[in-house]
Design goal:
Blueprint: E1 2-9, H1 13-24, E2 29-33, E3 36-40, E4 45-50, E5 54-61, H2 64-81, E6 93-94
Antiparallel strand pairs: 1-5, 1-6, 2-3, 3-4, 4-5
């Protein structure tokens, strides 16, 4: 599983989440509440959270190609909805998989 994140500094984050979720609801399974949205595409899942100053987008996908496709779909639509802000390309960061450093044991 590949996980990536990107952050957009904007006071309109909750509005963009609502627009994205409403738009994608016609095509994919979504969940939306105030300041939070999830879009489950065939290629991956985008989870979006808003606060007063930023929009955090987390993408989970099975592999790098599907992750890139999910990022592209979300970013292209976000750029369209946020056209007044003249957005720069999002800077996607890969989330490192963190394994618990404890010892795993089995009972038997």
């Amino acid at each position: 599983m590949i996980e990536t994140t990107a952050t957009l500094e904007t006071p309109h984050a909750a509005k963009y989440i609502a627009q994205l979720c409403k738009h994608f609801a016609h095509k994919v399974d979504i969940t939306h509440s105030e300041g939070h949205g999830e879009c489950r595409f065939v290629c991956g899942t985008a989870i979006m959270d808003a606060d007063d100053t930023s929009l955090l987008i987390r993408v989970s996908a099975a592999d790098e190609a599907q992750s890139a496709e999910t990022q592209d779909v979300v970013e292209r639509h976000l750029v369209r909805f946020a056209f007044r802000e003249e957005l720069q390309p999002l800077q996607w960061q890969t989330v490192a998989n963190r394994l618990d450093s404890g010892t795993v044991t089995s009972e038997g």
